[in-house]
Amino acid sequence: MTNLATPASPPKSETVHVSLTVNGKPVTVEVDPRTLLVQLLRDHLLLTGTHVGCDTSQCGACVVLMGGDAVKSCTVLAAQADGASVTTIEGLAAGGTLHPMQEAFRENHGLQCGFCTPGMIMTAVDLVAHHGPGLTEQQIREGLDGNLCRCTGYHNIVKSIAAGAQAMAGGSGSGAKVAAE
Questions:
Q1: Could you give the maximum distance between any two Cα atoms of the chain, in Å?
Q2: Residues 147, 119: contact at Cβ < 8 Å?
Q3: In angstroms, rounded to a whole number, what is the distance separating the alpha carbons of residues 35 and 107?
Q4: CA quadruple 77, 79, 80, 83: dihedral, nearest 10
Q5: pLDDT tens-place string over residues 23-54
Q6: Scanning 74, 76, 97, 103, which has the fewest C-beta atoms within 10 Å of its C-beta?
Q7: Are 164 and 175 in contact (CB under 8 A)?
Q8: Does domain 100-168 sit in CATH 1.10.150.120?
Q9: Whole-model pTM?
Q10: Distance between CA atoms of 44 and 157, rounded to whole angstroms?
Q11: The listed CATH number (3.10.20.30, 3.40.50.300, 2.60.200.40, 3.30.70.260) that belongs to domain 16-91
Q12: pLDDT tens-digit readout, 1-26
């Protein structure tokens, strides 16, 4: 005998309570447990500077700082950021003044279309925080592993990071010597 009863409707999706600090401001949201940090930032908080480029954790366009460390926000569940401090590209500038790394990218033409730029800058800030301002070209290039740019040959990105590292340290911004490509 076949049961023709209407199947029960699926249970309502549970939500999780997430409290974190984003760009220095406390935030509390209720999200689906499957929500990624990048989705929380872009869709719930409307911080669209963090980009989604590949959905596979390969491109680095979604890099943010979480607890002071660079993370690919497309690989972090929003619930994992509960209690954390997150800084996005929007949180780097202070009072209308660009962060030294942002300014270095502008001054050294470290971008073309700009899609990868937020992730590159956030990775660069992390690189300087962990290795100091005296970065070599090799350290910069290795530090950018996992950040893709489809427009440039990376020469001006490396030059920008070297200059930004020096500027972050209060120097002139000359940075590492970058070989011609």
A1: 83
A2: yes
A3: 36
A4: 140
A5: 999 999 999 999 999 999 999 999 999 999 88
A6: 97
A7: yes
A8: yes
A9: 0.86
A10: 31
A11: 3.10.20.30
A12: 555 555 555 556 699 999 999 999 99
Nearest C-alpha neighbor of 101 from the set 165, 10, 32, 34:
165
Q: Which amino acid type is present at position 162?
A: A
Percent of the chain predicted with pLDDT > 90: 76
Q: Which two tokens stand for residue 8?
A: 């029960």
Helix axes 100-107, 155-168, angle to 10 degrees: 140
Would you say 125 and 99 are in contact if contact means Cβ atoms under 8 Å apart? Answer: yes
d(CA 83, CA 102): 27
| Whole-number Cα distances in Å, 90 to 1, 61, 81, 142, 180 | 62, 14, 18, 25, 32
